[in-house]
């Protein structure tokens, strides 16, 4: 069953409106429907679910790629989705929200830090079927072409089947032309071990650059880390209900003396 | 059973190191152990799980309140936790991480947008028992005194019992001197309906202020929204595994033609 009318697709990202990754995503989505892009005017990696509340936002229509309606926004990736829904679509929600393609992985715990994924989460909060896409290549000139047929297929399935209520998809691609297939996964229980590169400014005052190493102690074959290491595209269904439901009975055994 | 040595407690927030809410939290924690504060040098409300990766950070020891070790950080609430663990505690993790007291509620979906809660989430990712505290009063000069006995009791319970692996607590207080007690809750399925206040700058170019109205269609008596409306302090156990585990079998029925 196909939809009677062409779907409307909102494209967002966190690397900024001029990033090659979003251009690749636009071109795939153009084959599926009417594309509207609302993306940050500058890189917003690591912005997580930040929103702008202490200062105003700009939203400007730009003419970057022929035939695609594109807006550049001064805010965060989540701001972009909020402005798109309210000011661009004026409440007429799009049929799909896709975010990316991110220059770099957003597997495992990175779903929390990632502006790309947070934009997709915000789409899902707005009840729009939403997907975030990321590639294991951090270079600005990364080659996204081998991901495109997978992206098209996953987006078509979501348009056709919808997604379970309150969920979205986190899709990550390995950096290989030989992707073996798609694996439905859970988020690996991995984390960053932070290091801060301490330096002195010209006035001898210290400053710190965040660096870190990704540590994975979760070797489950049902994880996104495992799938990517074995050259599969990983698809993790994500929810924005952060309640640890299993912990509620535990806490109910506590006696609070107040 | 009490711990043989005085616990070490990391205090963070998102309203900034000079906010009255964090001062209140410091004073309660001082009764329980050795307090170390690492907080943003400016308000960081709505920063969610943002981290600073494109620019360096400052971390300065400040002498704000007598007898408490306090650091002011130029980054986000999550940056504060990362710098605290790495540079202040140098890997010797504190026994507890508390965040807040936030000037304003962080119930329901606000757990995602809140810098206060994201700092507590980061504490939990670092395997530190962590709690975020928020009060339903957005004023800078909010009165936090009626929350203090509840905060002390909840923190003592966490120090004594620990928390289930991979979880933390999101505690919200109603703005009343007559708090009826503590309710263990789930996150209500509510959301913000955004509005953007559109204005023209002196050069006649439009700009937008984010505003919005909180809409709750989830009237479950087991939700944090219900508890707060009925003058209970709400305690939601939160997890940072965002996998929608229930959706995995659904997605496994899809046939991807790639």
The number of strands of chain A is 11
CATH superfamily of chain A: Survival protein SurE-like phosphatase/nucleotidase
β content of chain A, as a range? 25-35%
Q: Which descriptor suits the 3D outline of chain A?
A: globular
EC number (chains A, B): 3.1.3.5
Binding site for a divalent metal cation (chains A, B): 14-15, 45, 102
Cofactor (chains A, B): a divalent metal cation; Mg(2+)
Keywords (chains A, B): Cytoplasm, Hydrolase, Metal-binding, Nucleotide-binding
What does this protein look like?
The structure is a homodimer. By secondary structure, chain A is an alpha/beta fold. Helices cover about 25% and strands about 30% of the residues of chain A. The first copy, chain A, is globular, with a radius of gyration of 19 Å. The model of chain A has no long low-confidence stretch (mean pLDDT about 95). Chains A and B meet through α2, α3, α4, α5 and β9 of A and α2, α3, α4, α5 and β9 of B.
State the gist of this model.
Chain A has 258 residues and is α/β, with parallel strands linked by helices. The first copy, chain A, has helices at residues 20-30, 77-88, 110-113, 115-125, 148-161, 224-229, 248-251, and strands spanning 8-12, 34-40, 59-62, 69-73, 96-103, 130-135, 167-173, 182-184, 190-200, 206-216, 233-239.
Descriptors:
Stationary-phase Survival Protein Sure Homolog, Chain: A, homodimer, two-stranded antiparallel ribbon, 258 residues, nine-stranded mixed β-sheet, alpha/beta
């Amino acid at each position: 069953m196909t939809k009677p009318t062409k779907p409307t697709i909102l494209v967002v990202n966190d690397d900024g409106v001029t990033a090659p990754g979003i251009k690749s995503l636009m071109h795939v989505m153009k084959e599926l429907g009417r594309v509207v892009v609302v993306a940050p005017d500058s890189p917003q990696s690591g912005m997580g679910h930040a929103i702008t509340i202490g200062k105003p936002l700009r939203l400007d229509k730009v003419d970057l790629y022929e035939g695609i309606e594109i807006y550049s926004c001064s805010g965060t990736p989540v701001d972009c989705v909020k402005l798109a829904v309210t000011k661009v679509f004026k409440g007429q929600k799009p049929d799909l929200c896709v975010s990316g393609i991110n220059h770099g992985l957003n597997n495992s715990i990175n779903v929390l830090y990632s502006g790309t994924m947070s934009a997709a989460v915000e789409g899902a909060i707005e009840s729009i079927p939403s997907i975030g896409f990321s590639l294991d290549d951090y270079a600005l000139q990364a080659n996204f072409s081998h991901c495109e047929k997978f992206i098209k297929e996953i987006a078509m399935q979501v348009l056709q089947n919808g997604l379970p209520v309150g969920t979205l998809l986190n899709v990550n691609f390995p950096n290989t032309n030989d992707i073996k297939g798609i694996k439905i996964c859970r988020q690996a229980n991995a984390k960053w071990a932070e290091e801060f590169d301490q330096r002195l400014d010209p006035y001898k005052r210290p400053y710190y650059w965040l660096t870190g190493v990704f540590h994975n102690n979760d070797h489950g074959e049902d994880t996104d880390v495992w799938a990517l290491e074995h050259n599969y595209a990983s698809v993790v269904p994500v929810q924005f209900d952060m309640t640890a439901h299993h912990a509620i009975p535990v806490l109910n055994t506590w006696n609070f003396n107040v």
